[in-house]
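ok so I'm stuck.
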Amino acid sequence: MLLKNKIALVTGSTQNIGLAIARAFAREGAKVVVHSRHEADARKVAQEINGDFCIADVSDATQVAAMFEHIKKTHGRLDILVNNVAHSTKGGILDITLEEWNRILAINLTGYFLCIQHAGRMMQAQGSGSIINISAGSGERSSPGGAAYSISKGAINSLTKQAAADLAPTVRVNGLISGLVGTPIGFKDMGNRKPEYDMIPLRRIGQPDDVAEAAVFLASDKASYITNSILPVDGGRLNSMGSGSAR
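replied:
not stuck anymore, here's the structure
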């Protein structure tokens, strides 16, 4: 087991990529703290994987602080943080309202920042830890009509690099760029339209488990000499010559 006896918090872990990561971590021996804004969903997943759960709006500093206080009191440590919560919205630079801009940035970026601060302090005090931030291809290539989402994802990549520099050598911080995977967003954009598969060198939409397995590796001691890295898990699409939006 690659994560035996590790305590791991995975934000947004009741569906899609977050759920796949929580299940993979539990399979590898970690005690996973499931996170959601909805108690019934979090409790259900926690029971399934024999984990713990927390309820919090990650854009609310008070709720984030309470979540980490629960982890500290209940488990005494935190070995792994996966920042995965994400909200998307439609609207280009000229269309998106300030209210929607602030909402998306608060969840997708400020929420990551707050969790990194709390986790980083705990991990530095205990002498070790691993943080993984989930991003998206649109943060590197942009996505027409998705201004706030794309910009937040690009900012997450920058946050990953800064946190890696500031928390070294005690805490490793890495990122995963998720490509078009088999989530509702992924299927909506790609569906079964065969011609669009040509945009992906591996010729298929990924699955949440593809991202989860990469997260297991980065969180484990197998990646003990890896920090400040951002790994695309996208079938090769980000670095290919194809065009089109990238989620």
